[in-house]
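Need tokens for this chain, all 149 residues.
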Amino acid sequence: MPDLDDIDHRVLRLLREDGRRTFSEMAECIGLSVAAVKRRVDRLKELGVITGFTVQIDYAKLGWGIEAFTELRYPGTTPVTEIIRTATDVPEVQEVFTIAGDPDALIHVRVRDLGHLQQVIDRLRRAGDVTGTKTLLVLGSWTRDAPVP
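Here are the structure tokens for all 149 residues:
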């Protein structure tokens, strides 16, 4: 585990809030020179702490405003790679979490409407060795990477 100090954590917090924040803006917030902040970011990238920079998308504005989590169950002999493969063929699947216990996997999906959700669930049920599903609709969400509303 890399040895990070308070300044490293402040740099990470600023980048989580806005990945496009300039070194100059961060330097002003932290009280370091621009060069020192750049060295910190470069070091965090080299250590693998920062793995990339992404964009946050408002999927509702693209017409994909419904999110759900679907629990998937499989026979006890199903390899984890098969569980993941089930979901990678479905473009609406955003993330796959294989988990210990019951269920075997938790799938995060984004869809246009409830009819579309039903189609996705039906497709997942027919895939591989799925023995059961349970779907939970997302009413709202918050992540550590976003500011508190």
